[in-house]
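Inverse folding, one chain.
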């Protein structure tokens, strides 16, 4: 015949003993969980960065950023993305539980990578625009130098244009 369970009360010795064992196990798990959390909290600033706004704001500084400043900012975010990927394995086994860190790790890494990519995209657009302006100025100068002077005044005008 099936054994019957006897009723227990919250203040029974067995219940108090089990509760004490559970509390000890939880207390032992908390430092590991807090340490894991601390590793990720050092990179929480990444989630506060708005990808598009950061890239736009970076390029609208006065004076405009130097190429070295752009490289340093891109490096800051690519380094952060790489660091986040090394914070922990996807699944961390703690004394009482298993923590799946992949979602937070991926979110931090992807945001940092997206900011770096947005900065590089903005750099590319800036370079294209600058090259187009330089090329337009070159074509304008070249057109001015293609004139074949017919008179001494036109020759003087061409020389003056070439000297400027």
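Residues assigned per position:
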């Amino acid at each position: 015949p099936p054994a019957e369970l006897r009723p227990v009360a919250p203040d029974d010795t067995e219940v108090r003993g089990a509760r004490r064992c559970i509390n000890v196990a939880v207390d032992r798990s908390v430092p590991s969980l807090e340490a894991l959390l601390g590793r990720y909290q050092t990179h929480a600033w990444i989630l506060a960065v708005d990808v598009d706004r950061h890239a736009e704001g970076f390029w609208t500084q006065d004076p405009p950023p130097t190429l070295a400043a752009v490289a340093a900012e891109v490096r800051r975010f690519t380094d952060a993305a790489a660091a986040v990927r090394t914070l922990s394995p996807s699944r961390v086994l703690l004394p009482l539980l298993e923590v799946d860190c992949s979602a937070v790790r991926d979110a931090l890494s992807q945001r940092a990578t997206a900011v770096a990519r947005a900065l590089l995209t903005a750099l590319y657009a800036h370079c294209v625009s600058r090259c187009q302006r330089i090329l337009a100025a070159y074509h304008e100068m070249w057109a001015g130098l293609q004139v074949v002077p017919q008179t001494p005044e036109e020759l003087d005008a061409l020389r003056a244009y070439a000297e400027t």
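Residues 14-163 form one domain. Residues 102-145 form the longest helix (44 residues).
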